[in-house]
Amino acid sequence: MPNKKTDLIQGTLDLLILKTVAHEPLHGYGIAQRILLTSKEILQVQQGSLYPALHRLQRQGLLKSEWKESGSGPMGKYYTLTALGRKSLQEEQAQWQRYAGAVALVLES
Amino acid sequence: MRFPWNRMEADLKRELEHHLHQLTAEYERRGHSHEDAMWMAKREFGGSEQVKEMCRDERRWAWMFGIWQDFAFALRHMRRSPGFAGTAVLTLALGIAANVIVFGVLQALVLRPLDVPHADRLMTLARTDQTYPILPYPEVRDVRDGNTVFSAVAAWSVWDVGLEANGVTRPVWAFPVNGQYFEAVAIKPFLGRLLERADDDHPEASQAAVLSWPSWQSYFGADPNIVGKTIRLNKHPYTIVGVTPEGFYGTEKFIQPAIFVPMANAASFGEGDLESRGHASVWSVVRIKDGVTTPQVQTELNTIAAGIRRRYPKDEEKAGFKLTRPGLMGDFLGAPARAFLAGVMVLAGILLLAACANLGSLFAARTADRTREIAIRMAIGSSRWRIVRQVLVEALVISILGGACACGLAWMALTSLAAWHPPTTYPIVFFVRPQPSLILMALLISVLAGVLFGVMPLRQIFKTDPNDSIKSGGNQSFRGRRWALRDVLLAAQIALCCVTVTAAFVSLRGLGKALTMDLGFNPKHAVVTTFELSQAGYLGAAADQFQRRLLERVSQLPGVVEAGYANSTPLNEDTTTSSVFSQQTADFRASNRAFYCYDYAVSPGYFTAARTPLLAGRDVSFADTPKTPPVAVVNQQFARRLFHSEHAVGRYFKNSSGLPIQIVGVVADGKYLTLSEDPSEVAFFPISQEAATKTSLVVRIRPEFPDAATNDMAGTIRKVIRDLDPSVPIRESSAWNSQLGMTFFLSRVATAALGIFGAFGLLLSIAGTFGLASYTVSKRLRELSIRVALGADAKQVLSAALGRMLIVLGSGSVVGIVLGVAASRLLSAIVYQASAQDPFVLAAVAFTVVLTGSLSVAGPVRRALHIDPATLLREQ
């Protein structure tokens, strides 16, 4: 199963996380699952990168977190975007699209 | 402990557990059993500790948490190897404490200026022809009246005075001062006023006295209404007009006066003639005017001296003045004290160097020990900085502990030194206070030393490949290894320690010789009682009668063998001199003088009581009176110097007033001022011919009596004197032995200081040698057991294990002893008869070095010899 999955390009994880929690508050596992699902099981986020990234984004003030009941079992730590995070998401997203477009132009030439 | 990161840790753990729970639930949904699901979830999740560690790195205070972790780790590490930690802390503590103590004393005695305003303008006036800064009073007056460069010229002296207050008479030390004294020191009174020019204008101009702070505290209970009260000094009423401030103790750093009185009143205190130009009796300090330079001052002093020489060609042939730094009796004590303290400072520095070398080799050994651990940490991805930080924190913990111990040691030593009174009747106090700046300095040195030597050995580890280290288990082949840094450090350290040990032995030997030398009298089984009769109003014939009555009473006491009295006894710091002229002299100017001699006034029986052998002629007698021709008893050196033979009885010499004096007896030579003096000339005059009010009663008791009897006798004599006249203040009544304390004081202080340094040095070298020897053996246990298994005998094992060690030890010791012998030449200035060429000293040093060396390698040797190869090879 891991063969088909692609490692994330350096620096894109933060953007993916911000985008994913922009819709609704999610816990770490939920974020990883959502990214896996929406990327049609191509992008798998390793725990070893996910949690440090979450903590880093929270320290930078882009995310905030709270403990909440998750459907069943123990409490989960849910992350949401802050105002600063929302602004950062827009900028990063624009920049990524410019970058991806540019790469595509070069490859298709 | 509650720290924010404790809550953060719990949070992190819960978060990751939640993830794992979700993952398990996911696998269960896919149809796996609970156990399988858990196992699969764990496998997918991977190392949760690694994730945690990475999350921790993202935190804001991550570095602080890391240091806390390092700190806890360092403490755990030290608990596991208490030998290493203890040795390192002890090493640092000893090296630093020695330096802080010596520097504290240096600061108090030499570096710190006097506690008076503009202390740099205050200088001691001294004659150019002697180091002891004492002058005839008329010369001080000449300088005072003839100069334009000083704002004040002060004269002061020390008198022994009976202070009667609230019905009690106490012998105290009074400073008679001239009218400009308090202008020169420029202090403000704490209460009332100080003595002024008008108080000293002419004899008995005023009966004003100023108390020093300590005597106001201890004799008058800090009475705030003391100003205006009347006391009696030597039976004369005086009014207290003021109190000096707390920090003021005159211009000498270790003398504490009790009271200040006008110098003009000398006659009523029974003090001798201050007006004679031939008799130096006062000290002088001067305050230089602002803007005046030292050459200007010296030029003017030369002019004044030339004038004095012109006006008094007979008495003042050699008049000449210079200025020296105040505080330690000019150059008399100042120069040797500065030299000695500088020498001791060098020793302390050597000790610190040795301690650092020791610390360096300890850390080097320890780091080598941890090569494998560090390699593993590097291999699993630890950064270099992380490792350096760990070692740094460990070095810091050790150096702070060491610094703290050093501060404690130094604090104790300096406070007890400040509270200690040297064994002398003079009011000597050491104003040594532990300074916070010193403590700070100690901590700084220890941290620097610790960090430097802790991190240095890391370089060699970073150079090695972690792979190699792990494979060989840190046991790089020792055979044929190059001389490592730690070998050199150990040799250097042992050499330095040998220097301190040699110095200690040289001074110990010197003191031993001094204690057993012939003094010219026997202070054992004798009681000396001193008092000043003028303090109770006795003068001239009255004093003579009192002394004779006392001698009569005391001679009848049971247990007394002989008794006699004198104006002073040898070696009690109170010695007067007079000029001696040959009988042919007619012109009694100073240049025609044959020599100076010490003079004493003694009673009949004094020589037998003091056990000074009478070699020829007769003792003085009460039949020698002012009406009979003047006579004297002289010592051998006097006879040799004047007549070039010891047959002096019946021959004559003249004193400075030209009076011919017949020599009636010759006594054996002795020591009179210091133990290290050359044979000195002495004349003993009959006290019945030259009455003295200052009295030292010497009472010899039966030698078979125990020491306690000496003290009982001292008490009995006090009682006898009190029965005769209770108003006579007794300065001292005790065993003669104990009164000589001050004579041995310098030697004792030097020996104590050097002894402590020697002990510190020995401890350091034991710690260093033991540490490195046991380290070497434990590192090579495996190799050694293979040797034993292959049939090596004890000698081969030892030479393999410790051969190199012994070379290091031996060469270090030899270099150290040679250095020590060279350095000890400097000691002979302070310690009497100290000589490093003494074979006894050399043997003792060598023996000590060999003994401590063998003691410190004994443990490791035992371990090397008792290797059981089977057990060891099985274990590894």
Structure in words:
The complex is a heterodimer of chains A (109) and B (876). With 109 residues, chain A is an alpha+beta fold. Helices cover 57% and strands 15% of the residues of chain A. With 876 residues, chain B is of the alpha+beta class. Chain B has 26 helices and 22 strands. Chain B has a 6-stranded mixed beta barrel. Chain B has a 6-stranded mixed β-barrel with strand order 14-15-20-17-19-18. The two termini of chain B are 39 Å apart. Chains A and B meet through helix 2, helix 3 and strand 3 of A and helix 1 and helix 3 of B.
Which tags fit this structure?
heterodimer; A: 109 residues; alpha+beta; 3-stranded antiparallel beta sheet; 4 helices; 3 strands; globular; disordered N terminus; B: 876 residues; 6-stranded mixed beta barrel; 26 helices; 51% helix; elongated
Secondary structure blueprint with pairings:
The complex is a heterodimer of chains A (109) and B (876).
Chain A: H1 12-23, E1 26-27, H2 28-38, H3 47-59, E2 63-69, E3 75-81, H4 83-108
Antiparallel strand pairs in A: 1-3, 2-3
Helix pairs in contact in A: 1-4
Chain B: H1 4-29, H2 34-45, H3 48-57, H4 62-80, H5 82-111, E1 122-127, H6 137-146, E2 150-156, E3 159-165, E4 168-177, H7 181-185, E5 191-192, E6 208-211, H8 213-220, E7 230-233, E8 236-243, E9 259-262, E10 283-288, H9 294-311, E11 321-324, H10 331-369, H11 371-379, H12 384-418, H13 436-455, H14 458-463, H15 466-472, H16 485-516, E12 526-532, H17 540-555, E13 560-566, E14 576-582, E15 595-602, H18 606-610, E16 614-617, E17 631-635, H19 636-643, E18 652-654, E19 660-667, E20 682-686, E21 694-701, H20 707-724, E22 730-735, H21 736-739, H22 745-779, H23 781-789, H24 794-824, H25 839-865, H26 869-875
Parallel strand pairs in B: 4-9, 6-8, 15-20, 17-19
Antiparallel strand pairs in B: 1-10, 1-11, 2-10, 3-4, 3-7, 5-8, 6-9, 7-8, 12-21, 12-22, 13-21, 14-15, 14-18, 16-19, 17-20, 18-19
